[in-house]
Amino acid sequence: MMSSANAFFKGAGSLLTGLGVTIKAFFQPVVTSQYPRQLLKISPRFRGHTKLLASTESPDKNGCIACGICARNCPSGSIKNVEGEKREGEKKKTATTYLLDYTTCSQCGICVESCPSDCLVFSADFNLVGVKREDFHFDLVQEFEKRKQVS
Amino acid sequence: MEFIFNIIGREAAMMIFGLVGVLAFVVVNALILTWAERKVAGHMQLRIGPKEVGPYGLIQPLADALKLLGKEILTPRNVERPLYFLAPIIVFIPVLVSFVVIPFDAALQVKDINVGILVILAFSSLSVLSILFAGWGSNNKYALIGAIRSIAQNIAYEIPLLLSLLPIVMMTNSLSLKTIVEAQGNIWFVCYQPLAFLIYFTAAVAETNRTPFDLPEAESELVAGYHTEYSGMRFALFFLAEYTNIFIVSAVATTFFLGGYQGPFLPGILWFLIKSYALVFVIMWLRWTYPRVRFDQLLNFSWKVLIPLTFINLLITGGLLKL
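YS: structure for the whole thing
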């Protein structure tokens, strides 16, 4: 008799505990993010396509010195046409074209690691779309210029 | 207004206005409750529920209703035709009749019948019949299993439902809902009869086939139970009846235990709706907290726990009244 009464009160208590859990959740802020309206902060380790950073000397131009080490080290041969010109009063070259074929890139990061001027990083662009293969052949120099204009 | 009264008589005119008002209320109530249910479910699971259609997703139920209206009404092969067609209509009648006697406010009641609660209880047992029709007529094993479960459950829980209301009837010497509300001028009956309130509420959740007693339409076992084979507007009628039933059991609980339309400052109708919808919220809260009970637990709980408890409660109430 005693044990069944005990079980009864324990059971009733557990029912109330359950109600407490849900009502607490009811008044808590939601944890979901409303995706198209609201984006989560993307982790710095995220690997999108690579992008060029600005040069440490002047923020107006890209930091790529067109050395071509990344193109030579790329295991998939996705980087082509890394060319640059030497501008007036500067010691190093500045890239004018840098073609990345993103369709064959496997985001291994060897180009990022091997860049001597540390101007190549992964971007956080995760929602790229295209209807043909050529949509993913990027010229990173042009992409850099476009980003500069936007900001 | 006077003109209409003169033509068909005051009584008949009141009935017609009442019916139109009740129909409007039933539809609006169902629309609001479907929206509220999804919002409550969302927030209890730390998400926000519908939000795209209209501000806070308020137009969502209208969009759903339009979709249901636009659907083809399918009739599966080999259904028991008269039963299959009658079921969604019969499920709706008790719902409409119950509204006739519920006092929304001191003056806002279609008709104050002196056996009001009997009318509600008698007609609400009709919904068992419609579930049986739907399950038997659908020619579908899931529908049949759902219907069998539903009947066993509804019969088992109708008894404690009725017996838990009896002490109140004994205390007020009346079956009229209005008299019962007016008897609670000072103290709500929930203070005198907390056990009866708990039993009534439990039985009411079971009567409306809501989780944790939703075995008749257990979606994880029986697809949708007795309304598996219904689509389009026929399904919508079942849905409408279900949500209206939730409101009715809450309204009866408000009338019997929580003082009905009585309360300070605010007008009576507001008090009535606030109390009723608070109870509806509790029913939703229960749904998103508890898992479904097993079938033997369900029946044991009614026959072995609730019914003896209601009898004890009834005896004690009777004894105390005699003193």
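YS: worth flagging: Chain B touches chain A at residues 40, 42-48, 51, 285-286, 288-290 (CB under 8 Å).
IM: good catch. Also Chain B is about 70% helix and 0% strand.
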